[in-house]
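QA checklist item 7 of 12: single-chain prediction sanity check.
[x] sequence parsed
[x] length recorded as 42
[x] structure emitted
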Amino acid sequence: MQTFMIVSTFKAEATMEQIQALIPAEQARAKELEALGIITSI
């Protein structure tokens, strides 16, 4: 198993509300990738 760290940057004009709005879609995609065996638990 390999370990990865994801680092991201946001545009200066991005608000916390915009960033937080992305979380559900990111979590759903992570579950899809986990179900496919592409990633392990996060």
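[x] summary fact logged: The chain has a mean pLDDT of 90.
[ ] second reviewer sign-off
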